[in-house]
Write the structure tokens for this entry.
Amino acid sequence: MSAAALSGSCHCGAVTFRLATRPAQIVKCNCSACRRYRALWAHMPPDQVDVTGQTATYSHGDKQLAFHFCRRCGATTHWTPIKPQPGAPWMAVNLAMAVPDQIADIPVRHFDGAETWRFLD
Ligand SMILES: [Zn+2]
């Protein structure tokens, strides 16, 4: 992958990610997992993301996706689909792992993952 458009790392630095393209938006979700992680999700095609380092995973409910976190410091770095949907193989990285100045201009959208499964704006 060439020069990263954006990058981030967990608190201890053991897990890093680099994005080949800059995301158009950040999604804050209020579902039972995301409200606890307080993540700033950037949804990306997996071929635009390069992750290094070892993670542990957690999934719940219907097990559509796996949350990845650093085995050492516990920071939630990204999620990946367990059962990718045809034509929509999305993953998401947690831009709370990026330097705040580098994501300040990316619009934040609030997603109601708890109930309606729609954006609230
Ligand atoms: Zn770490």
Q: What stands out?
A: The radius of gyration is 14 Å. The chain has a mean pLDDT of 92. Residues 6-111 form a domain with the Metal Binding Protein, Guanine Nucleotide Exchange Factor; Chain A fold (CATH 2.170.150.70). The beta strands are 6-9, 16-19, 26-29, 41-44, 49-52, 55-58, 65-70, 76-81, 91-94, 108-111.
